[in-house]
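Ops channel
N.P.: pipeline sanity check, posting one input/output pair.
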């Protein structure tokens, strides 16, 4: 994804897959799609004000922490950083899976850093977070997929801050023993994203398997009912409405509590292209349909991402008895 920032005086920064142009009050997201494919008007946002973004950037640099906000080029990064919030990405920044939609670096992973849980906890404390979201790269090279590192992060954050913790995990290759290790930390929310419909898995998710991911969600719901179960889907990759409805039905069949639906935006021209920009009204319709299907909480909109306003959505899910 390219980002175009508008301020008074134009200033351009160029680099691979990135162009920033400034004027005063709004943020346009210029999609990394072939020339002539214009982004719709609803993919514009006001720029955040204040110094919160600099605080967050500096704190993350000081504590040597990665975020999915940066590595996945999230369009919500300016807003979230300005609110002094971020989604921490642990287990390094080199992923072992080459998913077609994701800009997180791929390569040879580095050894785990034993003090990372404490650094995440310190950042959460200094940011004043009451709901902390922790995700990771996929580490198929580790015997437990990094599950115990997740558990250590949950424990460290809770001891340092008393905050609720939401984890967004890989599928651990379907190893439910690894899932149990994560859940030994008793996160308030367990999230694992299906991302898209089964037909598109080969292109979008590489080594992942739709049924395996669905089984992970169902396993947590059945065996760890104290945690809310959550997943997310990207729209605009070429899925049909019937395929999407089938996925929502599958999710309800395994008891998934919370759902996020957002617009896919290609990080670079090398990634899967956007097939369609879904109008806001359609996102609203899908939210209403999903709620009628029994999801406890649904966040649906062009800019919705798995951890966007995660604390508020978890609180709303609890309030509705999800």
């Amino acid at each position: 994804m390219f980002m175009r920032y508008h301020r008074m005086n134009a200033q351009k920064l160029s680099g691979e897959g990135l162009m920033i142009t400034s004027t005063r009050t709004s943020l346009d997201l210029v999609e990394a799609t072939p020339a002539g494919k214009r982004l719709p008007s609803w993919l514009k946002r006001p720029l955040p004000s204040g110094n919160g973004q600099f605080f967050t950037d500096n704190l993350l640099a000081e504590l040597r922490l990665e975020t999915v906000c940066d590595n996945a080029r999230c369009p919500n990064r300016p807003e979230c950083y300005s609110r002094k919030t971020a989604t921490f990405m642990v287990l390094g920044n080199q992923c072992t899976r080459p998913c077609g939609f994701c800009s997180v670096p791929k390569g040879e992973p580095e050894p785990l850093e034993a003090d990372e849980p404490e650094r995440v906890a310190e950042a959460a404390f200094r940011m004043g977070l009451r709901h902390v979201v922790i995700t990771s790269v996929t580490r198929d090279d580790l015997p437990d997929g990094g599950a115990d590192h997740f558990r250590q992060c949950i424990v460290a954050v809770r001891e340092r801050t008393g905050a609720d913790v939401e984890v967004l995990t890989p599928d651990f290759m379907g190893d439910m023993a690894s899932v149990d290790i994560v859940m030994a930390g008793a996160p308030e929310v367990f999230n694992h994203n299906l991302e898209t419909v089964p037909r598109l898995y080969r292109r979008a998710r590489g080594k992942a398997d739709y049924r395996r991911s669905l089984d992970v969600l169902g396993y947590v719901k059945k065996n760890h009912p104290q945690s809310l179960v959550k997943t997310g889907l990207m729209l605009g990759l070429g899925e049909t409405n019937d395929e999407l409805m089938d996925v929502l039905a599958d999710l309800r069949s395994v008891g998934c509590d919370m759902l996020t639906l957002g617009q896919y935006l290609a990080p670079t021209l090398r990634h899967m292209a956007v097939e369609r920009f879904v109008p806001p009204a359609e996102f609203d319709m899908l939210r209403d349909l999903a709620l009628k299907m029994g999801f406890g909480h649904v966040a649906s909109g062009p800019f919705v991402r798995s951890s966007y306003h995660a604390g508020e959505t978890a609180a709303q899910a609890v309030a509705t008895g999800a």
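N.P.: looks fine end to end. Confidence is low (pLDDT under 50) at residues 1-36.
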